[in-house]
Amino acid sequence: MTSLVSAQGVTKRFGSFTAVDNVSFEIEKGRILGLIGPNGAGKTTLLKALLGLTDCEGQLSVMGLDPFKQRKALMQNICFIADVAVLPRWIKVSQLLDFVEQIHPNFSRDRAHELLRQTKIMSNSKVKELSKGMVTQLHLAIIMSIDAKLLVLDEPTLGLDIIFRKEFYANLLSDYFDEERTILVTTHQVEEIENLLTDIMFINDGKVLLDSPMEAIEDSYVELLTSGEDAIKAKGLGPIAVNEMFGKSVMLYEGISRDHLEGLGELRTPAVADLFVAKVKGARQ
After folding, report:
1. Mean pLDDT to the nearest integer, 190-194
2. Is 277 left (phi over 0), alpha (psi -120 to 50) or beta?
3. pLDDT in tens, 225-257
4. How many CA within 13 A on the CB side of residue 259?
5. Closest Cα partner for 248 from 225, 265, 266, 222?
6. Three-state DSSP class for residue 26
7. Cα–Cα distance between 170 and 172 in angstroms, integer?
8. What is the pTM of this model?
């Protein structure tokens, strides 16, 4: 299977600072990858490299193209959403549709109108007259009206309330995603998207800490809730993280069979957020 995105030894330096450090990964088409990392981890720099906004060392291919050298051709098959505030506040909705129609060959104005009819957004409204949630709906309607192979979402729901965040991802899956399209999303609200993801990647200090299909998480990691003498025994099995909570110990293990932990407490698959914290803390030790 040919990868939609292929990165081998990708590195980006700014003077003596290394923002992305020898990163390698593959993204197949029809996947939803969550790129998770703290502020300053290298996420934005990596996204800029994928979008052809910055050059880098190593080998990077997106849909068989060099993003930096062949950006014009690449952008015909990529859509990108960052903070929705990038939309000009003075522009009318109808003017925005005119602009996108002129610059993007794969944009369907009929599709955009169809999606906007499901909202309260009027064609003669200016962006500055819309609520933040409505601007997000407008941005998503435009994106979903473009026949693109790769959608990159960088904190797309930042500042929105939980209702709009839920609707955003529900609409994304029901009206956009299919086996021919691929989505790459970064967010700090990991718990809201983990059930949508097919793959997860953790990045910290420019290095990849985890790159895994979601279905492999349950096989590789297990969380144990225990106490008393069982907790003492469990600590001897080498957890990668231990947290104390209400008189109980919560231990996270990597590469240990659940059979080895049977009888020591309650076993469960760790949440992505908990696994991320454990991985980052472990990398800092």
Report:
1. 87
2. alpha
3. 999 999 999 999 999 999 998 889 999 999 999
4. 1
5. 225
6. strand
7. 5
8. 0.88
